[in-house]
Amino acid sequence: MIKAIIFDFDGTILDSEITEYLSWKETYASFGQELPQDAWLNSIGGVGLFHPYQKLEELVGRPLEKETILKERWQRDWSMLVQQPVMPGVMDYLQTARQLGLKTAVASSSAHDWVDRNLERLGLMDQFDTICCRDDVGGKSKPDPDVYRATLAALHISAEEALAIEDSPNGMVAAQAAGIFCVVVPNELTSQMQFAQPDYRITSLADMPLKQLLTYVSANGAPFLNSNAKRIREFHAAVGSPLPNSLTMRDAEHLALRHRLIAEEYEEVTAVYQEIIAALQDGKAVDPVTSLTPLVHELADLLYVVYGAIESFGIDADAVFSEVHRANLQKAGGPRREDGKILKPPGWQPA
Backbone dihedral region of 316: left (phi > 0), alpha (psi from -120 to 50 degrees) or beta? Predict the structure, then answer.
């Protein structure tokens, strides 16, 4: 049962992302340069993922008046930001949440001085039970899940009892890595990005009332939250190696590592299988618990690295498994090989 709604701040409650982007774009243009959009988009939702001033100096090819440029850029950003309204649907969600007795919170990669200042300016500071920012978790920003974990702890709820609302892939990955069902609501900028595995996506909070969304989550939340692919992504985020959000060809070194991990786990599975098979062939008594426990453990390890290999390309392993499952179901009623394997029947369609 959902007990709390956790909002991202930048781009979700207030579209500060578009004003920051436009002000930097104008700054680059004043030097005859173009702001690299892909690098900018990939940094949304996190901190320190792209350094626009350093990139500008690199493109210009000479030192610039940093203090003056940053001050003018910030003034332009703020002049646009104060004209920005609260994002559509946010006020209705907060009002409905109060009516339903749900807690509300903010989980942001920004610092408190930025988030608190703008919430006060918008008259929203008293609308939230807790506000967690990167300075509450040692400066860690999304896609690291710690700000979401800290928010859950402050609300005294479990991940399964929360619903996160995010606008960026980095934010989505952070929420999901914390085990939270994440609703993606892209804004003007992030709508141009790919979201590899959104639990649910809507164009605007104004398009779906909170009660309707909660009905959907109550019916579909558990299967998403119990996803093996989500667990793999949670692990990688926890160890500081978040997986890509869109289709990505990894380098040869990474592919060699993934192949080696699978080969190592396969060898361990084979060793346990051979030990059990040999014992049975010799007529020995084989205890199911002591024999199958290591076998199941090694099989799970193999499954883990195989899922990780698929997810490492930014591919939804659960979707791949579902399609293979669909294809395999079509084999029902087909002929069997001598060893018992079901073969493909006439008209079978591959995954």
Answer: beta
More confident residue, 95 or 35: 95
Q: With CA atoms as reference, report the closest residue to 242 among 302, 301, 172.
A: 172
Question: CA–CA separation, 201 vs 198, rounded Å?
Answer: 6
- Shared-domain flag, residues 232 and 93: yes
Q: Scan for tokens 């979401």, then name that residue.
A: 148
Q: Which of 8, 136, 144, 146 is catalytic?
A: 8
Q: How far apart are CA 6 and CA 148, in angstroms?
A: 8
pLDDT of residue 349: 65
In the DSSP assignment, the letter for residue 14 is B
Rounded distance between C-alpha atoms, residue 268 and residue 121, angstroms: 60
The token pair at 291 is: 């024999």
Q: Are residues 30 and 127 in the same domain?
A: no
Q: Given the structure tokens 């900028």, which residue do they identify? A: 189
pLDDT for 226-246, tens place per residue? 578 877 877 887 787 888 878
Residue 96: give the domain boundaries. 4-10+88-186+199-238
Angle at 303 (CA atoms; ends 301, 307), nearest 5 degrees: 120
**CATH number of the CATH domain containing 273:** 1.10.3420.10
What are the helix (H) ranges across the chain?
A: 16-30, 37-43, 52-60, 66-81, 90-100, 112-122, 146-155, 169-177, 210-225, 228-238, 252-281, 288-311, 317-329
- Annotated catalytic residue, options 10, 136, 146, 318: 10
Residue 102 makes CB contacts below 8 A (sequence gap 6+) with 2, 3, 4, 5
β 162-166/4-7 pair status: parallel
10 assigned to active site: yes
